[in-house]
TrEMBL record:
Organism this protein belongs to: Pedobacter cryotolerans
Family, per entry: Belongs to the heat shock protein 90 family.
Binding site for ATP: E33, N37, D78, M83, S98, G99, T170, R340
Protein name: Chaperone protein HtpG
Gene Ontology molecular functions: ATP binding; ATP hydrolysis activity; ATP-dependent protein folding chaperone; unfolded protein binding
Source taxon at top rank: Bacteria
Pfam family membership, one: HATPase_c_3
């Protein structure tokens, strides 16, 4: 083979600076791109083998990453399909021409053609973010193929010559540039591989490691161990989200959770996502035990594309109210490396968003219907999601109204329907409006709660930050129903009571006691009621106008949860 020199054909005159600066904000993704290309190459040879288009030995698929700190090189090699010199010119030189999309087009009827990761035809060039010189050594699977070598220093000129590879596959050798020497560290590379390659479908080897292996038994019949060097395989090739739910046990889901969040407490339950039309998405979402420090627990969902880690920024893909969920979403249909606003407008992303909402609602309904008691035990944790979801998404409200629970001061839980049935007979006013009483603070409002309960009314507990919004949204949604805080000025009057209780005070006494209190408080929007029914009753209640109080509360929350 003779040496050939030429120019890389590009669609934009100087694409390298663009790639270097704008395409990827993070240098470290060069390794993600090159390792995924190697994985693609291995998947392709397997595919060709199973289609009968390659009759040689496919062998054990393997991708190997190696570091030579002294020579300042990082090598990514695979035993995939390799490339001929012609293919290098076509697939590598023609920037922005994606070999992968052509491959998928060609084999689109084959079952797992979409296992091919690459889609953009630019990934390879991310190598130049960290290299002065990139070298390809490759040998194609094709009959009579000769090994080829390609080198390029990041300008638009390249060189192709005879290569030195003797086995099928490709090695990409990066001559790391001065600004990127941080990558010439074993620890650093291991860290990047852990982040991006942990669940790739082909074994990724990075050096070796020492482990203990059983080595016969000693005099006391106890097993002996010896140290052995074994391949350091950085990934698990078939993570649970790629498997069928029927093949998985609870322990599998919990183990996987521990893998993702080694320090996390066990989750409450999980949802296995699996859809292939009209978009492709798999994953497992976990409901964590909610702690007070919400912010620490947000943004825990990891986004993958065909088992390659992409990001843990899933803000626009997962509905806002589910941002506290943990787990993994894998979808080749989510556009990558594009701007936020584009993502929000993307129709697949919108569909994915509503699919996830629906799956979560279905799972909650299932848990509720299957084991109400267990569901009630989890309510203090999941109530937040459910309420937030019902407030923020109409569709979720419609589903949630069947499994959302209202909890009263006695700790009893009711569905909306059950609650209405329970309180309507006692708490309906003259206009036929059912009045729900609630407390935002069982300690501070204890006197009001007690007097309401003495009258035979039920009081709901609405004491979490989300509840003030939830109360307003319930009032809008529930027909002929009002919610009044238990200390509201109207709570006593609105509710019709048959029995009239006799006060121990004369009318005159009541009036003067009332005047004393009003003078002492001296603020608008408060009202004073002198009850004084019996010695163990609160003799006087001071209430605040419900509307005014809510306005104050909202102001305090500074606009609320959105
Ligand atoms: P994409 O992966 O999106 O197609 P890349 O720029 O990452 O884009 O790669 C361009 C093309 O180069 C690939 O589609 C493939 O045809 C070829 N290629 C890259 N790396 C390898 C490899 N390790 N083995 C075989 N072909 C490769
Ligand atoms: Mg690629």
């Amino acid at each position: 083979m003779t040496t050939e020199k030429g120019s890389i054909s590009i669609h934009t005159e100087n694409i390298f600076p663009i790639i270097k600066k704008f395409l990827y904000s993070d240098n470290e993704i060069f390794l993600r791109e090159l390792v995924s290309n190697a994985v693609d190459a291995v998947q392709k040879i397997k595919r060709l083998g199973s289609l009968g288009q390659f009759n040689g030995e496919v062998g054990e698929p393997l991708v190997e990453v190696s570091l030579d700190a002294a020579a300042k090189t990082i090598t990514i090699s695979d035993n995939g399909l390799g490339m001929t010199a012609e293919e290098i010119k076509k697939y590598i030189n023609q920037v922005a021409f994606s070999g992968a999309s052509e491959f998928v087009e060609k084999f689109k009827d084959a079952k797992d053609a979409n296992e091919i990761i690459g889609k953009f035809g630019l990934g390879f060039y991310s190598a130049f973010m960290v290299s002065d010189l990139v070298e390809i050594q490759t040998l194609s699977y094709q009959d009579g193929a000769e090994p080829a070598k390609w080198t390029c220093d990041g300008s638009t000129s390249f060189e192709i010559s005879e290569g030195s590879r003797t086995t099928r596959g490709t090695s990409i050798i990066l001559h790391v540039n001065a600004e990127s020497e941080e990558f010439l560290s074993e620890g650093k590379l291991q860290e990047i591989l852990d982040k991006y390659a942990k669940f790739l479908p082909v074994p990724i080897k990075f050096g070796t490691k020492t482990t203990q292996e059983e080595d016969g038994v000693d005099e006391e019949e106890k097993p002996k161990y010896k140290s052995v060097e074994v391949d350091n395989i950085v990934n698990t090739t078939n993570p649970i989200w790629t498997k069928a739910p029927a093949d998985l046990s609870d322990a599998d889901y919990l183990d996987f959770y521990k893998q993702l969040y080694p320090f996390g407490e066990d989750p409450l339950f999980w949802i296995h996502l699996n859809v292939d039309y009209p978009f492709n998405l798999t994953g497992v979402l976990y409901f964590p035990k909610v702690k007070d420090d919400f912010d620490m627990q947000r943004n825990k969902i990891k986004l993958y594309s065909r088992q390659v880690f992409i990001t843990d920024e899933v803000k626009d893909i997962v509905p806002e109210f589910l941002m506290l969920l943990h787990g993994v979403i894998d979808s080749p249909d989510i556009p990558l490396n594009v701007s936020r606003s584009f993502l929000q407008a993307d129709s697949n992303v919108k569909k994915i968003n509503s699919y996830i909402t629906k799956k979560v609602a279905d799972k909650l309904a299932e848990l509720f219907n299957k084991d109400r008691k267990a569901y009630e035990e989890k309510w203090s944790n999941i109530g937040l999601f459910v309420k937030y979801g019902m407030i923020s998404e109409e569709k979720f409200y419609d589903k949630g109204k069947d499994f959302a629970l209202l909890t009263n001061t006695k700790g009893e839980n009711f569905t909306f329907e059950e609650y209405k049935e329970k309180v309507a007979p006692v708490q309906t006013d003259k206009n036929g409006t059912v009045v729900y009483l609630y407390t935002t603070d069982t300690e501070k409002q204890d006197g009001f709660i007690q007097s309401a309960e003495k009258k035979g009314y039920d009081v709901l507990v609405m004491n979490t930050p989300i509840d003030s919004h939830f109360v307003s949204s319930l009032e809008q949604k529930l027909e002929k129903t009002q919610l009044k805080r238990v200390d509201a000025s109207v709570a006593n009057q609105l509710i019709e009571k048959d029995e009239v209780l006799e006060s121990v005070l004369s009318e005159e006494q009541s009036t003067s006691v009332k005047a004393i209190f009003e003078k002492a408080i001296a603020k608008p929007n408060f009202s004073v009621e002198v009850v004084g029914l019996s010695p163990d009753d609160s003799p006087v209640t001071v209430t605040m106008d419900e509307f005014m109080r809510r306005m104050k509360d909202m102001a305090k929350m500074g606009g609320g949860m959105s």
